[in-house]
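Re-run requested by the PI after the first attempt was lost when the workstation crashed. Everything re-entered from the original request form. Ligand of interest: glutamine.
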Amino acid sequence: AEHAQLLNKSTNALVSFPTKNHNPNPHGPLSHLTVAVKDNICTTHLPTTCSSSMLRHFTSPFDATAVELLKAKGATIIGKANCDEFGMGSLNVNSIHGPVVNPYQSPDEKHIPRAEREQRSAGGSSGGSAAAVAAGLCDAALGTDTGGSVRLPASYCGITGLKPSYGLISRWGVVSFADSLDCVGVFGKSMDTVKTVFDSISSYDPKDPTAATPHTRERAKALAESLLSTLDANLSDPDLSSLRIGIPQEYFPSELNITIVTAVRKVLERLSSLGAQLIPVSLPSTPYALSAYYVIASAEASSNLARYDGVQYGTRSPLLPGVDKSKPGNVYAHTRSAGFGVEVQKRILLGTYALTADAFDNYFLQAQRVRQRIKADFDSAFRVPNAQLSNPSPNPDGVDILLHPSAIRSAPRLDSDAVSGLGPYLQDVMTVPASLAGLPAVSVPAGSAADGWPVGVSIVGQWGSDELVMCVGKVIE
Ligand code: GLN
């Protein structure tokens, strides 16, 4: 326990812990698992701060559905994990709890005491969840992924991170950032752990209005079935000859660090030696994804975060002397200026602007059009049709999965340029397209970059083919 405390102190991964561990179901199927939960997912036994001063005193009166399911199956929740404020960020540096430090030990640094090693970002926004798993503080962790917040930290910390298809895991009890993009995701050191947790929490929940219905789930499962049954990744010698892997050319932009390409190439060579067919594909709308994402995510955030008024929700900030208390606007403005960090305020302003009558067409609607194109790009790339469409048509020349680097680089140092300015926004360039299209994507470790730090590759599939995506990920890890 002392060792764990020290580890947590050096990584800053977990921000609250239960005083006693009461497991209501010690013989449940997950009773062997310890799980950390991102601090924007509601728990009754621990605070849910969203790393925001606004919620620093908040404890939820109910558990999120995902947490309730884990507890009911016997998992032990060991603590709440640090994150970027309301999930806004890529490096877990926007947090009232302070930044998360990546626990990875590069081979050349093993002999240096931990406190003297270079401090790198664990990625974000679910950096605490990823760091807790990577440091061995727990077996698995829940995060949320709106534009890459599970896949990016998984890649930077050298572990596996799944963003499931949108709508498969209930968002009930998950503090909303951008509802049309938010997904609960899972971290683990192995795909088996990730899959066990995913299978336990992926079920229809009538409390989530955007949950995928049992009918759509069944339909997606039936569509993916034939391919899955021909792949058996559990064999020590998997045969991938029925698998068509698409390599999207737009995912090798000029910002991509060259040593990442080397690591990805090794993965491709291995998959090809197991029989997989590698097929170059084009997803032409990809270059517009990042701008569309930040318009849509900020617009939805500005609406969601309007509820923190210091009256019904959020910590009310005391008014400065001389300010007129009788004007409710003063309470509201002061509470929001004091309670939200700089990044959150930036998004609220940006999102509010995109939704004003003057800007709506040029920004919000335009971003929605880009989103439709991104979805259409993916639908024309995949062999299996999208089960969410009313009359899906199959595409015999399509691919089964797409494979690309998870990030443009390895984890940046916490004191580097990548942490300020536009740096953090660029980190998501590979991950936002799958978010806009609601597709399943998993980042798995794929060796290291020239600096010795972990590199992740992402496998992306058609909506609902989460099992296939995990199956291919397992072959790679
Ligand atoms: N980095 C992205 C953002 O800041 C994604 C965050 C997320 O997925 N929660 O919005």
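Saved to the shared folder this time. The two ends are 29 Å apart (CA to CA).
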